[in-house]
Every structure is written in C-alpha cells, then in structure tokens.
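Researcher: Re-running this chain for the archive, since the previous output was lost when a drive failed. Same request as before.
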Amino acid sequence: MNALELKYGCNPNQKPARIFRRDGGELPIRVLSGKPGYINFLDAFNGWQLVKELKEATGLPAAASFKHVSPAGAAVGLPLDHTLARIYWVDDMGELSPLACAYARARGADRMSSFGDFISLSDICDTDTAKIIKREVSDGVIAPGYEPEALSILKTKKNGNYTIIEIDPSYEPAPIETRDIFGITFEQGRNGIKIDKSCLYHIVTRNAQIPMAAQIDLLIALITLKYTQSNSVCYAKGGQAIGIGAGQQSRVHCTRLAGQKADNWRLRQHPRVLELPFIDGIRRADRDNAIDNYIGNEYMDVLADGAWQHIFREKPEVFPEEEKRAWLDQMEEVSLGSDAFFPFSDNIERARKSGVKYIAQPGGSVRDDAVIECCDRYDMAMAFTDFRLFHH
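Model: Regenerated structure tokens:
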C-alpha cells in the first residue's frame, strides 16, 4: 500500500486528504483497526520517532502520549513506586511490565493534557500495556507489533473502532523532507541528529557532576523536545517528563508553563491529594479535573457553589498555599532541557522553584555568562549541547 485515504485533513472542510510516499514506495504501516485521521498520523509518526530514539538512547522500553503534534508525556520503563502507581491510577493492576510502566508514566505526568491522546510504544504492545490503554480515553496507538491477547483487548475499544497502527520498525525515511505551505514547497534535510550521553559532556558550570539517573532524564528531555512544537522546554525526573511547555513565543513562558505542570505532578503526590474522598463511581476524567481544580485556585469556586457534593463524599479542606510551597520545596534532582538557548537568567530562577538541579541547553546566547553565573549561584550543573532542536 503506497497511499491511504483519510476522512479529512486537520478540519472537516479540508478535503480530500491522504497520506502517501512521494517516491511511490510502500507505506511502512498497517492499520489493524479503526480509521485514523490526518492529525492522528501526525501524532503517530512524531511519537514513533520519539520513542524509537528514547529506546536507542537509554536501552529501555519507551512510550509517549501525544496531543496536537506535541507530547503531553514521554517516559521509559522504570518501575513505579506505590505513590506513582496511585496518582497514575494503576495501583490496582499489580506489578506491571516495563512497557506498561513507561505508558503509565507518559500518560500520568499530565493527565489533563493526555485525555484523548495518541499513544506511541517503542516495543511490541503487551497485555499489561493494552489493559491500561483499554481503561483510558484515547484516540489510538502505534507500535511495532501487538501480542495476540493485547490486540484482542484493544480491538474492543470504541465498539471495535479504536485506531491501531502497526509500523515497520526497520523503516528509515529519506534524508530530505518536503512539505507544502501556501502552495509553495519547502525542503530541508531531516533532523537526524543523534542524542546520546556524549551530548552532555560540555559542562560549563562549576558543578560538573551529572549522575547517571540525571543523564537519563536529560536525554528524555532533549529527545522529547526534538518532537515538541517550539519554543519548548521539558522538565524530567525519575525516567519521565514531568512538565512540557510547548509552542510558546517566549522562552520564559515555556519555562513557567512546564514548571507549573511539574509542580502539579509533585502536588498530586501530597497526602491531602492522595486522600481526597471521591464519591464511588466517579469517572477518571472528572476525578482528574477535580484534582486539578483542588490544586489550583479554582477550588474555592467549587466550594462556593456546592458542586463538591457531586465529586466528594465530604467537603475537603482548602489546600493552603504555604503548605503547597513547603511540599514543592522538597522536590529536588529535577532535570531540565531546552530546545534553544536561555536568553536570560530568569529561566533559571523559575526552574529552581521546581527543584531543577541539572540543565541541558544549546548555549550560544550573548548572555550565557549571566545564565552560567545564575546556575553557579544555586550549585546547578549545566551542559551545553551545542545544537538547537526547533521543531515546526
């Protein structure tokens, strides 16, 4: 098959729509179920590249949760502790496979953004991973293969219409890529830059110690950024992205947005949040929205209009701001990647509030000295990768 007709493009009025290879070659995918759309394939192909490169860089199974051509989460398959299993809603599933842990992490980092995601898996989808996917709201999945039982489970989603794509893991795209904008063809060399631990050797701060766990987190951040709409930064910890700030015009706004998401990830582990008295039978999406409101400033509105009675068995106490700050101040050993240089030290100041200790960025700003000085002030270790990762 060298072409596949789609229902429509980005919007229903954009017809006709299809995917095909300009060289006339076979498409490297098989659609096993469902009818994927234009945006589904944009998410699927970006996500597949991301997880394939994560697997190559770390040696661990990898997963990504994509929404609107940027990852909401990305992770490798490290085991989950009890608290993470609880906040990712998989604590009832027992010990999970490494691939299932990777997807639980990728989906769970920012559950609000991952709602209705497109999933990418580096390895053959196993039963554990399929069981997690089955219970979440998702548009589809791409993987290099599926175990028979896993495929049977996935085919029951959406009354048998769930999108399941199998990709040939040996496929390599042409070194030159093209796209048409406004009737004009753009051409460029594919971004084939290899991201591995050698990218972290140019350390420019007094603190030159980046432990192995932080190196893995920095690789996760950088590879995630390679497939995130720019400008973007990524906070990572414990084998996963915990905050991604995508598509912002200002670098510091990326840092703030991603930092807020990282803070939410940390606050969801607070005992107050873990012990929220939800009513029986509440839907996962409603529970996620309630937690987001509880952590944020919207909770007082919920209390005021009595809507809490539709969510909780009893009215929870307000989460005091000073208690939140004290909990966030305990977060440490966080890694931060940036797809382009930091033009001002305000990015470092914001990153520090979310526990950042290790940074990887291209360098090359006229204010590099000020940024390095700020890192030294807080004993952070920063590596210059010497390459930019813009993605549009």
